[in-house]
Amino acid sequence: MSIRDWPAAERPREKLLAQGAGTLTDAELLAIFLRTGVAGQSAVDLARHLLGDFGSLRALLQADLPSFSQRLGLGPAKFAQLQAVLEMARRHLAEQLRRDSALESPQAVRDYLKALLRHEPHEVFGCLFLDAKHRVLAFEALFHGSIDSASVYPRQVVKRALAHNAAALILTPHPSGVVEPSQADRVLTRRLKEALELVDVRVLDHFIVGDGEPLSMAEYGWL
């Protein structure tokens, strides 16, 4: 049966408009993105099949072009549309942080970092550079690869903070393993704080971005 033949309250698009996007299942949201199904499958049926094939919505969203395009009903055009949607979401979150103080919007910081880093296939160490009102000036991924305390250079962090004329910053490592901070993480944070204090730049927090909610070292009193 075509989705057009469904009761209006059960059609994903009408349901979204009437009740809000948060009420839709992953399959219903994906069906709206797909717009159409394939022979013998409605858009919702196809969406359910794809979610089962990839294993989760997250896995589908972070699939590369070859993996994405080999699935029925998908291809380079859909991949490009999806990447555009994801980038718009990231820019929306970034704009919110530019308007509001990072200290007053910790959840906005978490949401932005998740959107920005969680799907990165490799370890990344970055910084959110902030102005005197703790609004975001810029984000930079400064170090890539296998990240440990020896591969993060305080001089480079200080150099980029000065380049952005930052008054403060938030450290944002994205490790490949667990998000629990190690002793090495705490030592690194102390080294960076000491280096940045010499140029009057404060380290406000150290968010470790993993699969779940980013962990704030400041909230645990570890800063």
In short:
By secondary structure, this protein is an alpha+beta fold. It has nine helices and five strands, in the order αααααααββαβαββ.
Written description of the protein model:
The chain is of the alpha+beta class. It contains nine helices and five strands, in the order αααααααββαβαββ. The mean pLDDT is 84. The chain has two domains: 61 residues, no CATH class; 116 residues, Cytidine Deaminase, domain 2 (3-Layer(aba) Sandwich). The termini are far apart.
SSE layout and pairing:
Elements: H1 12-19, H2 26-34, H3 43-54, H4 57-61, H5 65-69, H6 76-99, H7 106-117, E1 124-130, E2 136-144, H8 154-163, E3 168-174, H9 183-197, E4 202-208, E5 215-216
Parallel strand pairs: 3-4
Antiparallel strand pairs: 1-2, 1-3, 4-5
Helix pairs in contact: 2-3, 6-7, 8-9
List keywords for this structure.
223 residues; alpha+beta; Cytidine Deaminase, domain 2; 2 domains; five-stranded mixed sheet; elongated
The number of helical elements comes to 9
Strand content: 5-15%
CATH class label of the largest domain: Alpha Beta
Give helix and strand order, one letter per element, not per position.
HHHHHHHEEHEHEE
The side-by-side strand order for the widest beta sheet comes to: 2-1-3-4-5
CATH topology of the largest domain: Cytidine Deaminase, domain 2
Strand elements, count: 5
CATH architectural label of the largest domain: 3-Layer(aba) Sandwich
What's the overall geometry?
elongated
**Which residues sit in consecutive blocks of at least 5 with pLDDT less than 50?**
none
User: What number of structural domains do the residues give?
Assistant: 2
CATH H-tier superfamily of the largest domain: Cytidine Deaminase, domain 2
> Which structural class do you get from the secondary structure elements?
alpha+beta
- How much is the radius of gyration in Å? 21 Å
Mean pLDDT: 84
| Sheet having the most strands | 5 strands, mixed
Give the fraction of residues assigned to helices: 40-55%
N-end to C-end Cα span: 58 Å
